[in-house]
Specification:
The complex is a heterotrimer of chains A (about 170), B (about 350) and C (about 500). With about 170 residues, chain A is mainly alpha-helical. Chain A is built from six helices and no strands. Chain A has two domains: about 1-80; about 85-165, no CATH class. Chain C is built from 22 helices and two strands. Chain C has a two-stranded antiparallel sheet. Classes of the chains: A mainly alpha (about 170), B alpha/beta (about 350), C mainly alpha (about 500). Chains A and C meet through helix 1, helix 2, helix 4, helix 5 and helix 6 of A and helix 9, helix 10, helix 18, helix 19 and helix 20 of C.
């Protein structure tokens, strides 16, 4: 439900702003000015706090109103509220996030060519619908892309992409 | 999978056409298969474009096989600044001398600490080297970095910039540094002088205040080109910067020089008075140095240093290029470099000790 | 002067130079169109190649790259809802919906014709009135910059979708993220939690590409099993530029206003093309009789965005050519390029190296023409890219984003930041927080902070000059007005019985 997601977000940001405010207390002033390096962090945390509180109040209010109207027009408001996160949706998203993170973590050690090939194959597999999954094809594309990107950037653009175990 | 075959061709075509575009300019660099051969090929390609010398292989050094691959020079400052320009002019003759390609990469941020810490933690095989200047000392003293030049293996100083001067608009009431000092002694805080907090020019101002008892309104307006703009826009009264960066504006009659902070008259700019000539007894010079990660073997540092010395002292083309920027190609070996940095650090610490209040 | 222009053109019209311009534009388009690679990077990479060339040849190549790089970003913006460069953020707002509505040809046509015209406008401004404009730009000190950024930040209220409240929170989040790293002026590390890697803060590119491109990939991953997603738009017919003469003439005023905004913002160092397109888009929307059409594939939105970002090119070159002062990272690189060729950018550039200056002008015009020709013939090809299944195309784009982020500073850290911002962007989208204000806060927040603190340093703590300096005061009043007008509009909407609540 949308108003619920607003409430969660608002609470999260309120906590964030409080943490920010206190951690900005440690910022020292190195210059003798009217405002130091701590002014803007405090301003930002105050801003987030105020507007998140407003969002929270509004969320609670509409939540209550909505409950009243619940019998009447539940369907319409349901339609444009945040879609609940079904399992089929969550898995590819989480798998994609996981793949990118693992890819980056291993990139320096294993090297660009190998990791990119592996990543591309797996990522294509994750994003493809079951009927579209064609591993040999994915592998060919992955090898070609990884190779071309590596050599173009490494030798033409002088970008020192990690060589890893191949170097 | 007939549906997905066509797309593959398209992807292939896209990548192929991209690479062909690149090949059109860069000649034959994509077809290299092996890793070692690749590096060689690349340096050839670079040299083809840059200069007509392909004879780097003839020069065999006897200290192991260093360098065996592309050397990356990390510049902890943005492209187009004086640090960047200095090392780019230097890297061309240096790569010919070392027989291996050199790549300059700019690792900006956090007053240069991002780039320098990168080299501190780099593989000590001599294929990554730092090029930096005085700010490394200041960063350490101010506590912005928890390491200093002592933690690196210095590979010598190739360039000194003695043109650290103070510049004003042509219609300024001040004609020399003595005028400025006198005015600032009588009217504390009246003159706006630009600097970047914690930068080299900030030190110069502190030294000047310390030495003469003058009091300036020290304002931060940003980097070198921001300072030029601020002086032109009359938002500041004095711009302390490098002579080479404002030479054009002096020639055009927009700016004039109050003096430079050199020890003696600099041959490159012999018509420019020094602070000392005008009775203000301070001097500063900006030095640029190469530094390797701490564990780098001496053999490797020596190979690099020898090449550096040859270029700085013997390559006339390079010397001319450097002098065009109003910097002096002056070679100091690692020992001399350590001495200079030790001395400077002591001096800077004294100056900055007073500011901490 | 006309002789010099003629001489400039005759230098460009030699085979070698033309080929360099052509190559520059083509490569620039590639860089611009690949999310993660930008014009800045293209120029940084090609700069060393120009050292071995004649100054004129080198400049021709770099100008081609600049024009191509800024223009290329419209391709992924329209096709994939991913801005190729910061300059194309607002092109996605209407370009992508228009393409999805079955008119990608029209979206491309509008975007490239008005890119061309916006660019041309700014080049002419650059050629004929850059000295007075540059003098005006010099009068912008910390007070003026602070005021301009404040004004630009009020744009957030028009870019927040349904909830201004959420938009403002997004803006503050952008501001907070920009504060990670060394503080301006005194370099005190903030919110780095002891990680030295964070000292330099986040670079704009990973933030932008993360928020827009990575989050888009995640969104598509989510929709994978959704049957609605099977629509693959393939059979587009494109005729000419895809729009009629009447439609073209209706855009005249919009084009002019957007180009003026682009030039004006381009001139101001630091603010640059990344914000010009957004400000111009918001202005067009607020001035329009049909603001509700914006965001649904409206021609005006594409025209405003694409005229402004190309007009910012000429703007950014004004202080460089007239005074030797770079306006953004690209012009800083060009300055370095000029210096390495032994030219001395500065007040004497026109006098001492007039032939190079006019060659730059000629190269810009030629590059602009080459750009429109390449894109015109290329657009049929680009549209076909859409027929590549997304599960193949998107991972490849993602790899290029990672490589581009890595290339910003040659650090894997920036690639990590890219992923962090991608996930952040996705989560924000899930909770229906708008993303564009994050970018605006991220770009403008530090400019506001730096200049506020610089201004106070200059006045030794006195706030008054922010209100008494005429230019600064004007912009602050404009900012206030824009907030008040928006507040009033909102109030009016609230008065009405709630039909479309939050």
């Amino acid at each position: 439900m949308k108003q619920n997601s607003d409430i969660y977000a608002a609470i999260f940001f309120i906590i964030l702003s409080i943490v920010m405010y206190f951690s900005s207390q440690n910022i020292q002033r190195l210059t003798v000015d009217a405002i130091g390096a701590d002014f803007f962090p405090q301003l930002a945390s105050a801003g987030i706090f105020i507007f998140s509180t407003a969002l929270l109040i509004k969320g609670l209010k509409t939540g209550r109103e909505l409950k009243k109207m619940e019998q009447k027009e539940l369907n319409t408001s349901q339609k444009d509220s945040t879609p609940s996160f079904s399992k089929e949706q969550a898995i590819p998203v989480l798998a994609t996030m996981g793949l990118i993170i693992v890819y980056l973590l291993l990139l320096r050690e294993i090297g660009f060519l190998i990791m990119t090939t592996i990543y591309l194959v797996l990522q294509m597999y994750v994003l493809a619908k079951p009927a579209q999954r064609n591993l040999p094809l994915f592998l060919v594309i992955a090898v070609v892309v990884a190779g071309v990107v590596y050599y173009v950037f490494r030798y033409f653009f002088n970008l020192m992409l990690p060589t890893g175990i191949l170097g | 999978m007939k549906a997905s075959f066509k797309p593959v061709q398209l992807v292939g075509a896209l990548l192929l056409s991209t690479s062909m575009l690149l090949v059109a300019c860069g000649e034959e660099e994509v077809d290299t298969g092996a890793d070692d051969g690749g590096a060689d090929d690349e340096s050839e390609e670079e040299n083809d474009v840059v200069a007509e010398s392909n004879d780097e292989d003839e020069e065999e050094s006897d200290t192991g096989d260093y360098p065996s691959e592309t050397i990356e020079i990390v510049v902890p400052a943005g492209p187009g600044g004086d640090t960047d320009l200095n090392v780019r002019t230097l890297s061309e003759p240096l790569q010919e001398e070392l027989g291996e390609d050199m790549v300059v990469t700019n690792v900006e941020g956090a007053g240069g600490t991002t780039g320098s810490s990168e080299i501190l933690n780099a593989e000590p095989d001599g294929h990554q080297v730092l090029f930096f200047h005085n700010s490394m000392l200041i960063n350490e003293i101010l506590g912005l970095a928890d390491y200093g030049y002592e933690d690196f293996k210095l590979a010598g100083i190739p360039i000194l910039d003695e043109g650290n001067g103070f510049f004003v608009n042509a219609d300024s009431p001040f004609d020399g540094i003595d005028d400025l000092v006198e005015h600032a002694q009588e009217n504390p805080g009246d003159v706006d002088v630009a600097t970047e907090f914690g930068a080299f020019t900030h030190l110069q101002l502190l030294a000047l205040e310390d030495e003469t008892g003058a009091d300036f309104n020290i304002v931060d307006v940003g980097g070198a080109s921001d300072k030029v703009a601020a002086l032109q826009g009359e938002q500041i009264d004095v711009n302390p910067t490098q002579y080479g960066l404002v030479k054009e504006y002096i020639d055009s009659g927009d700016f004039k020089t109050l003096g430079i902070l050199a020890e003696d008259t600099v041959p490159l700019m012999d018509d420019v008075p020094t602070f000392r000539d005008q009775g203000v007894d301070i001097s500063f010079e900006k030095f640029f140095f190469f530094a390797f990660p701490p564990e780098t073997p001496d053999d490797i540092v020596n190979t690099f240093t020898e090449a550096l010395q040859t270029v700085v002292e013997e390559n006339e083309e390079y010397q001319q290029d450097a002098e065009d920027f109003y910097v002096s190609p002056t070679y100091l070996d690692p020992d001399e470099a350590y001495d200079l940095l030790d001395e400077s650090k002591e001096f800077y610490e004294e100056l900055l000790a007073d500011v901490d209040e | 002067m006309f002789e010099l222009i003629q001489a400039g053109f005759s230098t460009v019209f030699t085979l070698d130079t033309m080929l360099l311009v052509l190559f520059g534009v083509a490569l620039g388009l590639v860089f611009g169109s690949i999310p993660g690679l930008t014009a800045t990077m293209g120029i940084a990479i090609c700069l060393p190649i120009t050292f071995g060339m004649e100054a004129t040849d080198g400049m021709a190549l770099l100008m081609g790259l600049y024009i191509g790089g800024v223009s290329g970003g419209l391709i992924p913006a329209i096709l994939l809802n991913i801005p190729g460069t910061p300059s194309n953020i607002s092109t996605t707002f209407d370009g992508y919906p228009m393409a999805q509505n079955g008119q990608p040809g029209k979206a491309f046509g509008l975007a490239l014709v008005f890119s061309f015209l916006g660019g041309l406008f700014s080049i002419l401004i650059l050629m004929f009135i850059s000295p007075p404009l540059a003098d005006f730009a010099l009068r912008f000190g910390p007070f003026e910059y602070f005021a301009v950024t404040m004004f630009a930040l009020t744009m957030i209220s028009s870019l927040s979708g349904d909830s201004i409240n959420k938009g403002i929170i997004s803006g503050f989040i952008g501001l907070s993220l920009a504060m990670v790293g060394s503080a301006p002026i005194d370099s005190y590390p903030r919110f780095t939690f002891g990680f030295n890697q964070l000292d330099a803060g986040f670079d704009l590119l990973p933030v932008l590409i993360g928020l827009f491109a990575i989050s888009e990939v995640l969104k598509i991953a989510e929709r994978k099993n959704n049957p609605l997603n099977t629509k693959t738009p393939t059979n587009y017919k494109v005729k000419g530029f895809g729009f009629s003469v009447v439609e073209f003439t209706k855009q005249g005023w919009n084009w002019f206003r957007s180009s003026v905004i682009g030039v004006g913002i381009g001139i101001l160092p630091g603010i640059g093309g990344g914000t010009a397109n957004i400000i111009s888009y918001v202005t067009a929307k607020n001035r329009s009789k049909h603001p509700e059409k914006f965001g649904t594939g409206h021609s005006d939105g594409i025209v405003a965005s694409e005229s402004a970002n190309n007009a910012a090119i000429g703007g950014a070159l004004v202080p460089l050519i007239a005074l030797g002062i770079p306006g953004d990272t690209v012009t800083a690189l060009l300055l370095g390029g000029l210096m390495l060729h032994g030219l001395n950018p500065g007040p004497l550039l026109f006098e001492q190296s007039g032939e190079v200056v006019y060659l730059i002008f000629a190269a810009l015009i030629v590059a602009n023409v080459v750009m429109i020709v390449l894109l015109f013939f290329g657009m049929r090809f680009f549209i076909k890219l859409l027929s590549i299944p997304q599960h193949i195309l998107l991972p490849i784009i993602l790899i290029l984003c990672v490589v581009g982020a890595f290339g910003v500073n040659n650090r894997l850290f920036d690639a990590g930041a890219l992923v962090f911002f991608g996930i952040l962007g996705y989560v924000l989208l899930k909770f229906k927080f708008p993303i564009v204000p994050v970018i605006l806060g991220f770009i403008l927040g530090p400019i506001a902070e730096t200049n506020l603190r610089r201004g106070l340093m200059q006045t030794q703590g006195d706030f008054l000059p922010f209100l008494t300096q005429p230019i600064a005061a004007t912009f602050l009043i404009l900012a206030l007005l824009s907030v008040l007008i928006k507040a009033r509009q909102n109030f009016k909407n609230k008065e009405r019985p709630e039909q479309s609540s939050t």
